[in-house]
Amino acid sequence: MISLGIECSADKLGIGIVDVNGNILANIRKTYKPPHGSGIHPREASEFHSNNMSQAIDDAFKQASIKPRTIDLVSFTKGPGLGPCLRVGAVTARTLSLALNKPLMAVNHPIAHVEIGRLVGELNDPVVLYVSGGNTQIIAFSEGRYRVFGETIDIPIGNCLDVFGRNVGLSDQQMPMGRVIELKAKEGKNYISFPYVIKGMDVSFSGILTHATRLYESNKYSIEDLSYSLQETVFSMLVEVTERALAHTKKSEVLVTGGVASNKRLKEMLNEMTSSHGAIFSGLDADLALDNGAMIAWLGLIMKGAGDKTDFEDTLVDQHFRPEEVEVTWR
Ligand code: AMP
Ligand code: MG
């Protein structure tokens, strides 16, 4: 059985093709780049996805060296994400399903990140820190569902880093903003005190972002020291909540995924925390940590294997689709 996965919940358009043994036959990604100095504009991103969709699908079939008719399933991201972007993916999935006469599977994006991590990292039951431009969640499996043990109560971590970078005039067309900040942070030497905001198991970044921007505007601190202090603070918060989820659930594996998971300092901190609990730490390479079509294809496939199905009427997108809404039939 072969599944084609369509991911376009935010700025990335991903088409993946995966077989039932978990072999990734194709994983094509095209990224919408907002105009200099601005963030993702949902309508413009969705136009990018529409304009690039057929090429991306062609590329994926070429990479996999298979014909469209050989696929057995069309999987797509139902949510969460940006409405106009998600709708491009859903419309494409319905069209392919009708044209090829293949069933559809609507999947939850954060769970797809978890499942591709379990597959590639050969993990059994990890506590997952999912940190990206649009999401920040600590997820673990409990009583038949993926539960969110902690999350941001305002902006996602990646968004905090991206907006900070824009506010202080950083930019690089070749690199994600988080990476630019990571490089600046490496040159930072002095830790500047920042608010540390954890409420219960949840984290908050918007006040920290404002604080960091004000410190920059005061002209008293270097971008290097600010980047270093910002990273140390927000990553410590994430590691603390992940550690508490690990201790509470008594699991023995930790996985970090999402675009921010490329950050070496975050991985180093998580690795240290995880090994102090005698647990295994695993990260993903950027190709599968960033939003991608392969993870959507794979989750669709294992859902199908467990007997799940999506009726045509149930293919509407859901911008606020939460992991715990999904009954996990495949574990
Ligand atoms: P995603 O939403 O999963 O596609 O990931 C995009 C987010 O990852 C953006 O906010 C980027 O700034 C962030 N990001 C990418 N590379 C890094 C890095 N090395 N360190 C921190 N954040 C990063
Ligand atoms: Mg994502």
Explain the overall architecture.
The chain folds into 2 domains: 2-113 and 288-325, 2-Layer Sandwich (Nucleotidyltransferase, domain 5), CATH 3.30.420; 125-285, ATPase, nucleotide binding domain (Nucleotidyltransferase, domain 5). It has 10 helices and 12 strands. It has helices at 42-64, 83-100, 109-120, 157-167, 177-187, 206-217, 223-249, 264-276, 286-289, 293-305, and strands at residues 2-7, 12-19, 24-31, 73-79, 104-108, 127-131, 136-142, 145-151, 198-199, 202-203, 253-257, 280-283. It is globular and about 65 Å long. The chain binds adenosine monophosphate (AMP) and magnesium ion. Magnesium ion binds at residues 109, 113, 132, 135, 258, 291.
Terminus-to-terminus distance: 19 Å
SS strand fraction? 15-25%
CATH architecture heading of the largest domain: 2-Layer Sandwich
Shape annotation: globular
Bound molecules: adenosine monophosphate, magnesium ion
Can you list the strand order of the major beta sheet?
A: 3-2-1-4-5
Ranges where pLDDT stays below 50 over 5 or more residues in a row are none
Number of helices: 10
Give me some keywords for this one.
binds adenosine monophosphate, Nucleotidyltransferase, domain 5, binds magnesium ion, alpha/beta, 2 domains, five-stranded mixed β-sheet, 10 helices
